[in-house]
Amino acid sequence: MDFLWSLFNSRRNDRHFARVDASGICHAFKQCRQPPQGQDWVEITEQKLSWLGNPLPNSARVIPRPERSSPLRLYAA
What we know:
- This protein has one helix at 2-9; strands at residues 15-20, 26-32, 41-44.
- The protein is flat, with a radius of gyration of 18 Å.
- The protein is an alpha+beta fold and 77 residues long.
- It has one helix and three strands, in the order H-E-E-E.
- Strands 2-1-3 form a three-stranded antiparallel β-sheet, with no helix packed on it.
- The protein has a domain at 13-60.
């Protein structure tokens, strides 16, 4: 029964990526939780088939967030 509930309650945290060549042309899409290996992949907000074979719009790119090197610590005053 838990399996059936998991089908309805599963929320995947997949991110969208596009493979872009040096001239900015989109060649492929990928949806996964971790960034794909390689330099040609950029994170995008959504996947649109009309972007394949065309330049990827700048508005589609996700602005990368800087990663913290250490966890944030809260100190009591």
